[in-house]
Design brief:
The complex is a heterodimer of chains A (466) and B (203).
Chain A: E1 34-42, H1 45-55, E2 72-78, H2 80-85, H3 90-93, H4 98-102, H5 108-111, E3 130-136, H6 139-154, E4 159-168, H7 196-199, E5 201-203, E6 206-208, H8 222-226, E7 245-254, H9 256-267, H10 275-283, H11 316-319, H12 330-334, E8 353-354, E9 357-359, E10 376-383, H13 386-398, E11 424-426, E12 432-434, E13 441-451, H14 454-462
Antiparallel strand pairs in A: 1-3, 1-4, 2-3, 5-6, 7-10, 7-13, 8-10, 9-10, 11-12
Chain B: E1 21-22, E2 25-33, H1 38-51, H2 57-61, E3 65-76, E4 86-100, H3 103-112, H4 115-122, H5 134-144, H6 160-180, H7 185-199
Antiparallel strand pairs in B: 1-2, 2-4, 3-4
Helix pairs in contact in B: 6-7
Classes of the chains: A alpha+beta (466), B alpha+beta (203).
Chain lengths: 466, 203
């Protein structure tokens, strides 16, 4: 299936990389093994503005590094409460998207953050103003930078450091359940075109990257692309509407002991008794990242997620019934590609640039039960529309299975229903039913964020944003 | 199946006014004023689509749509027995549909999958910006959409896809139950496995 209407040939817009914050369009990369999120509250507007004004010059942009990698990077994200605390006018505040203004906690019922995932149990501040994101090459680099930032904060009356969240990569860039993670990213036209096969959308000339405006405000998105850039997606007014983006920050605790235990007990009844195969059916990938739809009998030993072409796969023609990769497998639900039918046309407007990092120590392989340590994933994604890109994936594809013909089945890996009901069907001859569904993942915190361009951030600090 | 108060169920539905949502179902009601030639064009279009079913195949394949209906309104019915029917100076296109999932996803499907069809339906309506790009098309639908004063779903937990599968599953279960009573335990095991294999898409 390709897009039927004639497209206007044009050169894609050039992103203003010196003004877009770093870590959005491209990840900083796995050399930055440590990431810390500092939650700062602005109790006094003028102190907040002065502090931000000094910080602006230190913010890392998306401009390519010519003099090697810096030891640390710094990025600044704001919540709606934060924008208010920093004195933005009511007229300007009204131009931000409804879901951002409501905040993630207010959307908990729709997002499935209920039961033990409900905001009242979150261990990060429900109301936050500014989140500083610090990436570091080493522990020493991180310690030094954080000390500087804390000292700087301490110079201002009326600012408080509410919370620090420390995250760091696990060996082999795996997440805590043991799977290689984070490489099936959307391709951005004019930025990461090399990721287009499987990461973009097909038109009559083949794969192309998604419009820049799907991820950064102030540029045509996929709708604007169809009008030759005549209409731009909804964005805040003034300087905040350019080179900015919305962000989603979620702290997702993972119960690794329960995941392993469930695999062990369920595999006893699974044909062949193969625990690894059952794990791959739940996730949609073998642990090294090999998509099970391409390699149903075992992982490809030489698979590397970041290799060119590693993400170039689809479901519909080879596996419409899910005999290889179950329709309910985690990666097939969260990024269904052409699985819903009509090519990618019903999925390509729902892509996110994911920049998550695990937190907490790994559970040792020999552990036989819980060790009392907290661990999980700091899920971060950047999108031009939180409702269209993040929320619809969470609500339509992960919280409910209807669109995939799976009834009310939730994503088996990350959305356990509170009442212990729920199942996952692994298609086969005969099919295998996994259930009742345990809760492997619990939401422990979350914020909807706005990540301004550097000019926009400067305007906020100067009180000239509007 | 739980039954909720009409209009109060929280389902997976998103993206439209609360009055348009009940459980899993979303209603959409759109009126648009039609140019003079629409009163000839639309009946011709409706007849053509009725006579040649393959033309609406893609619409039917979108399983989250319960139904979609386009009607040309030339006069308003009597409001009470004695009032006269009102002939409209301009005819109106009345579009109504019920569907699952999200409003945005629904209009996206119209824009991207049924681009040509949507352009034909709304071609004669004033202000129609075209089915693509999807941004102005969504704005157009929003501007002409009416929020339902009352909307009721008898089965708020059910979706069209689920009902269709349940209807297909029912005779298969009945048939298997009838055969099962005559099977030995060993035969049953094989037959049950074969039944699950055949019916797995419906479970």
């Amino acid at each position: 299936m390709t897009i039927a209407t004639p497209r206007i040939r044009r050169t894609p817009p050039v992103p203003d990389l010196a003004d877009i914050q770093g870590g959005i369009l491209r990840a900083y990369g796995n050399d930055y093994s440590r990431t810390t999120y500092l939650f700062v509250n602005v109790d006094e507007t003028r102190a907040g503005l002065r502090w931000l004004g000094r910080l602006v010059d230190d913010v890392t942009s998306a401009r390519p590094w010519t003099a090697g990698k810096p030891a640390t990077t710094l990025n600044v994200a704001l919540t709606y409460d934060g924008l208010r605390a920093l004195g933005l006018s009511a007229e300007l505040l009204a131009t931000f998207s409804d879901e951002f203004r409501a905040g993630m906690a207010a959307r908990a019922a729709q997002l499935g953050d209920v039961g033990t995932s409900a905001p009242e149990y979150w261990d990060t501040p429900a109301r936050a103003h500014v989140i500083l994101i610090v990436n570091a090459l080493s522990e020493d680099d991180l310690t030094g930078r954080l000390a500087d930032l804390r000292a700087d904060l301490g110079r201002y009356e009326g600012l408080s450091l509410m919370h620090e969240e420390h995250a760091s990569l696990l060996p082999g860039v795996r997440e805590h359940f043991g799977f290689a993670d984070g490489f099936a990213q959307p391709a951005v036209e004019g930025v990461t075109d090399e990721k287009a096969p499987g990461g973009g959308v097909r038109d009559k000339d083949g794969w192309r990257g998604l419009a820049l405006g799907e991820f950064v405000l102030g540029y045509p998105d996929e709708s604007g692309r169809d009008s030759d850039g005549q209409d731009l997606p909804s964005a805040p007014a003034g300087p905040l509407g350019r080179n900015s983006t919305y962000g989603v920050w979620r702290k997702l605790e993972q119960d690794v002991a329960l995941f392993r235990e469930t695999l062990r007990t369920s595999a006893a009844a699974f044909p062949g008794g193969d625990e690894e195969k059952l794990a791959a059916k739940i996730v949609g990938r073998w642990r090294n990242g090999t998509p099970i739809v391409l390699s149903p009998d075992g992982p490809a030993a030489d698979f590397r997620g970041n290799d060119p072409g590693a993400n170039d796969f689809l479901y519909h023609d080879v596996d419409a019934d899910g005999r290889r990769c179950p329709l309910g497998a985690h990666i097939r639900r969260s990024n269904p590609r052409d699985s819903i039918g009509f090519g990618e046309l019903l999925s390509f407007r729902h892509r996110m640039l994911r920049r998550g990092v695990p937190y907490g120590p790994p559970l040792p392989p020999e552990a036989t039960g819980p060790d009392g340590q907290q661990r999980g994933l700091i899920f971060v994604c950047y999108v031009a529309s939180i409702s269209r890109q993040f929320e619809s994936v969470q609500v339509q594809w992960l919280e409910d299975g209807n669109v995939f013909g799976l009834g009310h089945d939730k994503d088996f890996l990350i959305r356990g229903p509170a009442d212990g009901s729920g199942k996952m069907t692994v298609p086969g001859e005969p099919p295998f039913f996994l259930g009742p569904q345990p809760t492997f993942v619990t939401t422990r915190g979350g914020q909807y964020l706005f990540v301004p361009g550097i000019t926009g951030l400067g305007a906020v600090a100067a009180g000239t944003a509007g | 199946m739980t039954v909720s108060e009409p209009g109060t169920a929280v389902g997976t539905a998103t993206g439209t006014g609360a009055g348009n949502i009940d459980g899993q179902a979303i209603a959409i009601t759109v009126f648009s004023t039609v140019k003079w030639w629409g009163k000839h064009w639309l009946p011709l279009l409706f007849t053509t689509l009725r006579l040649i079913p393959p033309l609406t195949r893609d619409l039917r394949k979108l399983s989250f749509i319960h139904f979609a209906r386009w009607t040309l309104i030339r006069e308003l019915p009597a409001n009470g027995d004695t009032a006269p029917r009102t002939r409209l100076r301009y005819p109106h296109l009345f579009f109504e549909s019920n569907f699952n999932d999200g409003w945005e996803e629904y209009i996206d499907a119209f824009s991207y999958v049924l681009t040509r069809g949507m352009s034909l339906f709304w071609a004669s309506s004033y202000g129609f910006p075209g089915a693509l790009p999807t941004g102005p098309f969504k704005d157009y639908i929003h501007r002409n959409e009416l929020e339902a004063a009352h909307y009721y779903s008898a089965y708020p937990e059910a979706t069209a896809t689920m009902v269709r599968k349940a209807l297909a599953l029912a005779p298969a279960v009945a048939d298997f139950a009838e055969r099962a009573v005559r099977l030995s335990p060993a035969e049953f095991e094989g037959a049950w496995s074969a039944f699950l294999t055949d019916a797995q898409d419906l479970l």
